[in-house]
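In this section we walk through a basic example: taking a raw amino acid sequence and producing a predicted 3D structure, encoded as discrete structure tokens. The instruction is simple. Fold the sequence below.
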Amino acid sequence: MIDHITFGVRDFARSTAFYDSAFAPLGVKRLFTVPKNHAGEVNVTGYGDDRPWFWLVEEKATTGLLHVALQATSRAAVDEFHAAAIRAGGTDNGPPGLRPHYHPDYYAAFVLDPNGHNIEAVCHTST
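The resulting token sequence is shown next.
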């Protein structure tokens, strides 16, 4: 089980605006921002549902092929995530749809965030 993930972003304001919008259909929201005097004069914020588990820090952007998949409660939420992420400046990296090569009900969408990270929303049910 993952407790939390943290990665660096180049443009904190652009990244938080993207995630504020893209995560809303999934019920994930910004829950906590660390005061700068406790974070070493950098911006740090955490997203989650009941507790922060997805953290962004304004520092050297994390590089590499970061892929984060968030579980959606419905296929409609996957569709809404994709649309919201595109409106927020994300880049399509796989439109909403079935990926039966994973399993028959694997319904997902993929977007690249402002830093190029691959963010996925996935629903594992038939609805």
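Looking at the output, two observations stand out. The CA atoms of residues 24 and 92 lie 18 Å apart. The chain has one domain: 5-123. In the next section we compare this with other chains.
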